């Protein structure tokens, strides 16, 4: 069995483990070895990897979820939530884009607002995205170069994911990436809900000269299911003006640059 096949099988196990945790809130090593037909050592390595990614907490004999939100509202619901805050974030983001740049936008309702905002502020940009909604929004901008990364279509989120999407993103050298996340905390860093989307977020960050993380103020001090990256991976964090001053000071004292007005 070659390395690529082994990696693919590991990714399948990761997804199944996460599915089981979402349903049962715990998993046993013994059950996983029987389910996957692999050794105890393989399952332990899987759990170690997922713990390092912020997906779970290992305990004796297995793993559990701990103090995390495991469900993301579907896209059609999320797009109507905190719309004013998302538009405020989008307007702030315009300061960090210049005409002619390349930018990346991952799938999300706040990044969608950035896509809407750039139409009114720039004439020429290259946009790399895995979001079909963003690509459609920008389709009438003749001087924009819009690059869809390709991959597996996820109908519930109107986006593209998977190994092909990740590999294609890695081929680009992006000036600035804007990544929307579902949670930010000093302990967990930046977190999100969806395994496939998180791999896209990571590749976009790795392929960019500057990574800007964006999230509404109600996501501070909250952790979603999986870790995207540590706080120091973001050059700045953009949020809305409703962020409590005590939280703003708290994060700044830990070296996190936050812009919210």
UniProtKB/TrEMBL annotation:
Keyword terms: DNA-binding, Transcription, Transcription regulation
Task: List, alphabetically, the Pfam families matched.
Answer: DeoRC, HTH_DeoR
Q: Does the keyword Transcription regulation apply?
A: yes
- Please give the coiled-coil regions recorded for this protein: none
Domain of life of the organism encoding this protein: Bacteria
Where does this protein come from, organism-wise?
Answer: Clostridium rhizosphaerae
The identity of this protein, by name, is DeoR/GlpR transcriptional regulator
Methyltransferase keyword on record: no
Question: Domain HTH deoR-type spans what residues?
Answer: 10-65
């Amino acid at each position: 069995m070659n390395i690529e096949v082994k990696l693919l099988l590991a990714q399948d196990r990761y997804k199944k483990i996460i599915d089981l945790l979402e349903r049962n809130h715990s998993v046993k090593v013994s059950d996983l070895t029987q389910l996957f037909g692999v050794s105890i050592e393989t399952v332990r390595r899987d759990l170690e990897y997922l713990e390092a990614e912020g997906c779970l907490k290992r305990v004796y004999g297995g793993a559990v979820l701990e103090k995390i939100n495991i469900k993301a509202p579907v896209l059609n619901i999320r797009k109507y939530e905190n719309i004013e805050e998302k538009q405020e974030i989008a307007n702030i983001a315009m300061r960090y884009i210049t005409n002619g740049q390349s930018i990346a936008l991952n799938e999300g309702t706040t990044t969608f607002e950035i896509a809407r905002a750039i139409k009114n502020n720039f004439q020429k940009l290259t946009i790399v995205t895995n979001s079909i909604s963003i690509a459609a929004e920008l389709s009438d901008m003749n001087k924009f170069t819009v690059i869809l990364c390709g991959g597996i279509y996820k109908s519930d989120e109107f986006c593209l994911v998977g190994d092909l999407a990740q590999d294609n993103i890695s081929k680009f050298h992006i000036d600035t990436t804007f990544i929307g996340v579902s949670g930010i905390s000093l302990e967990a860093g930046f977190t999100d809900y969806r395994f496939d989307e998180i791999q896209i977020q990571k590749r976009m960050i790795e392929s960019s000269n500057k990574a800007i993380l964006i999230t509404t103020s109600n996501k501070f001090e909250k952790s979603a299911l999986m870790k995207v990256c540590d706080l120091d991976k973001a050059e700045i964090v953009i949020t809305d003006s409703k962020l409590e001053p005590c939280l703003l000071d708290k994060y700044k004292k830990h070296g996190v640059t936050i812009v919210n007005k």
